[in-house]
Amino acid sequence: MPSLSTPETPHYTPAPPTKEELDWADLAVVDISKADTPEGRAELAVQVRDAMTTQGFFYVVNHGYTQPQTDRIFDIADVPFARVSPAEKSAYTAKMKESGSYQGYKPRQYWHIANGVHDQLEHYNINRDITKRAHPKPLRPFLPEIDAFARHNHFNVLHPILRLLALGLELPEDTFVQRHGFDAVGETYVRFMKYYPRSEEEETKTNNVWLKGHTDFGSITVLWSQPVSALQILSPDGKWRWLQHLDNALIINAGDALEFLSGGFYKATIHRVIQPPADQRGHTRLGVFYFCMPDDDVRLAPVAESPVLQREGIVRRCPDEQAPFMETWRRERTSAYGKTDLKKTGDGVEEEILNGVVVKHYN
Ligand SMILES: O=C(O)CCC(=O)C(=O)O
Ligand SMILES: [Fe+2]
């Protein structure tokens, strides 16, 4: 909470929500405050199971942060971009290709998008254990608030959702919670992300794609809703649909690790970022995320003991004995992303093979 004792920082004002009527995805809204009781969890488990087996995305509301608390996190999120010098940014750049980890900065223009055009977004990633590594000086006064924010995401958002996902598979409630320890060794982290407007030439050469269609490689992504429309999901009918901003809501999606663990029952949904509608162009777009993944030593093989999977069948992307550990999967995905030669396999689809598993990218 902002108070007299919290350090000051300029307020980040995002563009107002678009007035355009876009083709919005119709997603469930999950009131996570109901997860406090067994009856509430039983009700939400059905809602979450339906969302995760069809769209792979849903909204969460009543997560326990007030609008002013959320606004404060967005103000802090701008610090690593607006208040850190280029020299300090370069000193804290992540060694993505070499170490397979995003911890630190992903600089602008690091990824190839299409036709020689590179991205125009930077992000700064902070492991939930904020003490694991040093941070740029201007960010240091805000570390206690970032620590509280990571814990809030972990215990009040991630764990309740993991319990619902286990219930949806008729498994003991803590099946996935046990594989996502806050104090375990693993990469689950906070990401602040800033997109900058692009030139006409960049827009044309990339067909307005800012971030290519992909699945996230972790289990669950928590995206703090912000007003600049640009995120689209590939709907089950094959159409790209826009995600609508809801004030102080979270957007939740499943990634590869959850798809592996659930034997294909919960879908890692493909999503991308494109140029915003005309009334929001020319603005920066600031994002706040909590990227969640199982602990490094978790093997990403299906929870075959699930009665649901026994009835419905399991879809495997590789044989169980070859299923990657979370650590291998995240390092390979991180090193390869935006840096490898992809093979064109269809209209707007490119592929690569990592650890014996096909990974698709969409334009
Ligand atoms: O910026 C967004 O809305 C989505 C970003 C995203 O998909 C990612 O960082 O994996
Ligand atoms: Fe993503």
UniProtKB/TrEMBL annotation:
Residues 1-20 are annotated as: Disordered. InterPro entries: DIOX_N, IPNS-like_FE2OG_OXY, IPNS-like_sf, Iron_ascorbate_oxido_reductase, Oxoglu/Fe-dep_dioxygenase_dom. The keyword Iron applies. Keywords: Iron, Metal-binding, Oxidoreductase. One of its GO terms (molecular function) is metal ion binding. Gene3D superfamilies: B-lactam Antibiotic, Isopenicillin N Synthase, Chain. Residues 186-294 form the Fe2OG dioxygenase domain. Belongs to the iron/ascorbate-dependent oxidoreductase family. This is Fe2OG dioxygenase domain-containing protein. It comes from Plicaturopsis crispa FD-325 SS-3. The lineage of its organism: Eukaryota, Fungi, Dikarya, Basidiomycota, Agaricomycotina.
